[in-house]
Write a structure and sequence with these properties.
- The chain is α+β, with helices and mostly antiparallel strands.
- The chain folds into 2 domains: about 250 residues, CorA soluble domain-like (Beta Polymerase, domain 2), CATH 3.30.460.20; about 60 residues.
- About 65% of the residues lie in helices and about 15% in strands.
- It contains 9 helices and 7 strands, in the order ββαβααββββαααααα.
- Strands 2-1-3-7-6-5-4 form a 7-stranded mixed beta sheet, sandwiched between helices.
- α4 packs across α5, α5 packs antiparallel against α6 and α6 runs antiparallel to α7.
- The chain is rod-shaped.
């Protein structure tokens, strides 16, 4: 079951909790404006707003589609916004959608997360209870407070991603065997999702700052420019981090190639030594084989073996020494 909160904010800055949405809408018709905060609502609850506040059915459908990109849609009685909130926990980026309807005397927010666990709503409610002066001038000022909290939480996620990049870089430089390329690829995907969201949200803030939303007063627009500056800065940071990810991957592949080259060189040196030894002993083995087969004629007899064996051994020694110096001379010449 969803837990939603309804508030009425008077021009004098009185912050009142309303029991039902009908009471809140009735209060808004007299004075001030209302904030309807829906957390994990049912379709029937939002469909009721189509009757009370003239919400378009397609906007209601978008509130239940979590694959929507940030956007701004203008309707006769309200303007519909989609923004993304980010949290980076346990090396994973969590994306949640925040839907906002703004009109002359109301602000409606919709999220699919519990109100008591969503960091944005707890922060906004605390600000309103302590500093209601920031929001009493109209829905546009309250929407600025909400978006400001959303952007602040984005900064925490971006900062956590930066720390993770530092860890990956240190791992590559200190212990290449402990590095996992899959984690770096996941970081790249997270940065891509973050960049896509920031790009569209920045475009939304451009539209707000050029007064495309008639429900946000000119006085409130000055506050939104600060949010635009933050989004533009975060967008540039994500671009820089994506370049760092590419650099780290190239560094990893380069170090890996160097290690493979060292291993191959060591293997080549071993093979060369073995080949060198084999080349020296091949002619000696041939002579030993010939001498062994001719043992009856060359080695047998009281006279022959005393001269034949030393001569054969001396010849093999001279051939071995000559082969060694010949191979060394060929290596130096190369």
């Amino acid at each position: 079951m969803s837990v939603s909160n309804f508030y009425h904010i008077s021009p004098q800055g009185k912050f009142t909790t309303m029991g039902t949405v009908d009471e809140a809408v009735a209060a808004a018709k007299n004075t001030g404006f209302i904030w309807l905060n829906y957390c994990q609502p049912q379709k029937e609850e939002l469909a009721r707003l189509s009757e009370l506040l003239d919400f378009h059915p397609l906007s209601i459908e978008d509130c239940f589609d979590e694959n929507q990109i940030p956007k701004m849609e203008d309707f006769p009685q309200n303007t519909f916004f989609i923004f993304n909130a980010f949290e980076y926990i346990d090396k994973k980026l969590y994306i949640s959608e925040i839907d906002i309807f703004i009109g002359n005397n109301f602000l409606v927010t919709v999220s699919q997360s519990p109100c008591d666990k969503h960091p944005v709503w707890t922060s906004v409610e605390r600000i309103l209870k302590m500093e209601i002066e920031k929001a009493k001038h109209g829905p546009g000022f309250l929407m600025h407070i909400i978006l400001d909290e959303v952007v602040d939480k984005k900064f925490l996620a971006i900062e956590a991603l930066e720390d993770e990049l530092d860890v990956q870089e240190e791992t590559i430089l200190s212990d290449i065997s402990a590095f996992h390329p899959a984690e770096l690829i996941q970081l790249r995907r997270d940065l891509l999702n973050l960049r896509k969201s920031l790009f569209h949200e920045r475009e939304i803030l451009v539209k707000i700052c050029r007064k495309d939303c008639r429900f946000i007063s000119e006085k409130a627009i000055y506050h939104y420019r600060d949010i635009y500056d933050h989004l533009a800065k975060f967008f540039e940071l994500t671009e820089s981090y994506r370049e760092i990810v590419s650099t780290l991957m190239e560094m990893y592949l380069s170090i890996l190639n160097n290690e493979m080259t060292k291993t191959a060189n060591a293997t080549n040196r071993t093979v060369r030594r073995l080949t060198f030894i084999t080349t020296i002993f091949m002619p000696l083995t041939l002579l030993a084989g010939i001498g062994g087969m001719s043992e009856w004629t060359m080695m047998t007899g009281a006279q022959n073996w005393k001269m034949s064996y030393p001569a054969l051994m001396m010849g093999m020694l001279l051939i071995g020494i000559a082969s060694y110096h010949l191979l060394k001379w060929l290596e130096r010449k190369r």
